[in-house]
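Researcher: Next entry in the queue.
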Amino acid sequence: MDNTLTTHAAAGLLADKVAFITGAGRGIGAAAARLFAREGARVLLAARTEAQLKTVTEEVRAAGGTADYVVCDLGDPASVRAAVDRAVDLYGRLDVAFNNGAALGPSGPMDQVPEADLDYIYAVNLKGPWLSMVAEVAAIRATAGTGAIVNTSSVGSLMGNPELPTYGAMKRAVNSLTESAAVTYGPEGIRVNAIAPGSTLTEMIRDWEADSPGVIERLNALTPLGRVADPDEIAQAAAWLLSDRASYVTGTVLRVDGGLRA
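Model: Structure for this entry, 262 residues:
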């Protein structure tokens, strides 16, 4: 690592922090892994697909960052606990966590959503963040003592969501979990917030577009900025909330939506 990179990392937004990121193999999570490392954090990437995790980890390392990965099933308590414990094993502590992993699920009216799909979306999008926060709070308590957690919600959780009813419902529940955790763990110095992205150019929205052609154009028409976000723009908001610059922010669901809900 050259002196320029060392100086940048030392002055970064997340300098000297250990960060755990779920859903880190692609999209917002992968962008967060790259950004957090550039901002000085040592990162552990978690997701289900090892090939994607390996690719992003190698990209971070090639840029001079410190990164490793662990395969993790967000619906499996043992898998989640092992992934969080791996961060402590690797880096000695846990300071911050970004719970970004999610699944989109089928689009369409709620009476047409198969029960099995509802159960799957629940396991990944609600149970997953709950399991992750429980493990992360325990790890932060036992090591760093204080820290911060950010959950990825969605602007679709802030309104009726007839096109993605199960996704919107689970994300709205994540907002409630976030607020409850902020109240519970704030006295210990553990901040908990969420971000609510608008339409973002990820594999997930491309899948939605394939399932519902024209959805990106419709969302852009409703967005004052008139475009989808780049994943890095969402990751920037998460990085700030996890950083010490947001030291008096907890229990908030921050819209990063191009003005969609303004």
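Model: The chain is about 50% helix and 15% strand.
Researcher: Noted, moving on.
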